[in-house]
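Subject: Molybdopterin molybdenumtransferase

B.,
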Amino acid sequence: MTAQDAEELYVKEALALANDRSGHASSAPAPASGAPHGPEGARHAATPWPEARTRAERAARTARRRTPVTVALHDALGLVLAAPLTALTDLPSFDTSAMDGWAVAGPGPWAVRDEGVLAGHGRPAPLTDGEAAPIATGARLPPDTTAVLRSEHGRTDASGRLHATREVNHGQDIRPRAQECRTGDQLLPLGTQITPAVLGLAAAAGYDTVGVIPRPRAEVLVLGDELLTEGLPHEGLIRDALGPMLPSWLEALGAEVTAVRRLGDDAHALEEALRNSSAELIVTTGGTAAGPVDHVHPTLARIGAELLVDGVKVRPGHPMLLARTGRNQHLVGLPGNPLAAVSGLFTLAEPLLRTLAGRAAQEPYARPVKEAVHGHPCDTRLVPVVLRGDRAVPLHYNGPAMLRGIAAAVALAVVPPGGARPGEALELLDLPWATTGTQVCFT
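Prediction pasted inline below.
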């Protein structure tokens, strides 16, 4: 089947589903709201996609406040500041030279000292008017320096006196003390995510350690007897794509993944894993529907979990769920199909982890789509895209079981029910490792 065939089949199935729901193509009566659904009892109505994300954020906010920790700078990358970063010193902490050249005092020409001034050395002797000293970038200025003459803007005559080849202004190429900040100035607010540049600023401002919000601990439970961990698919068995993919993806979303456990279709093993986990987020793969080996719902019922989201009006990924399994523990149940699981990550895991980790939400942004995008008649649809100039290009191979499209994508486009016309602006959700504007496009 080609990618175009798969797309057309998707639309036909979506239209058939819409007809079934409206009663036009099905004589079977729809279950009443709150009526039992399948052998395990009542199931909730699917939650609209925006509301599902809001519920995930709200669930994280109602958890117990997470205690900040102090870490060394080299362990802080990617974490979030638990308190404002304030300067522990003036920056720079003394007057320094911004260029290689000469520190000069008064108007030229200048008599040049034999001894130069290097970075990292002690306080140099003061200059007198008409005197210059060779100086390196970053070196402490001699007292009474009036300017720095760049090496390319000066020359010495036969007698060794220094002349400027262009006008020298007072204060030229000097970085005065506290030019960037003064001791006690707030450099960055609470909640700033720590990037390499933030680490550099913290070090320059005098920090050896910083207070941060720790990463939420996450555990992945891979369900399904049909999954292989190596080799080629055979005899009805398929390779597990989610076990290798989810830990790195969750870490990119801010989690610390403490374990990846393969449980197969064993209801007892799943219940024991849920009862004994100390993770703040448990992520399961598959088993969220109502089939004979879909054990997630009945297991959650046995342990007394509270279902916060039970199905989401999004494609792919409709049978995802979010449950509170303890005071400070939540479970995100992902569908077993790989792209449907990615949809679950963005819908439920991302807002939950982001809020737990204290990260700021991505600023919403939209781009016009280059071509028409098929939509589901009733549900939101998430479609992998790349960017070409100011246009989002939808990628093929975007069926629930496919990863080929998302592997080449930089973002997911949020397609409203009914689809989008060419040129229509759609909200984009950046992939956590993608560089916006990537031009690669495999369709």
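DSSP finds eight helices and 28 strands in the chain.

T.
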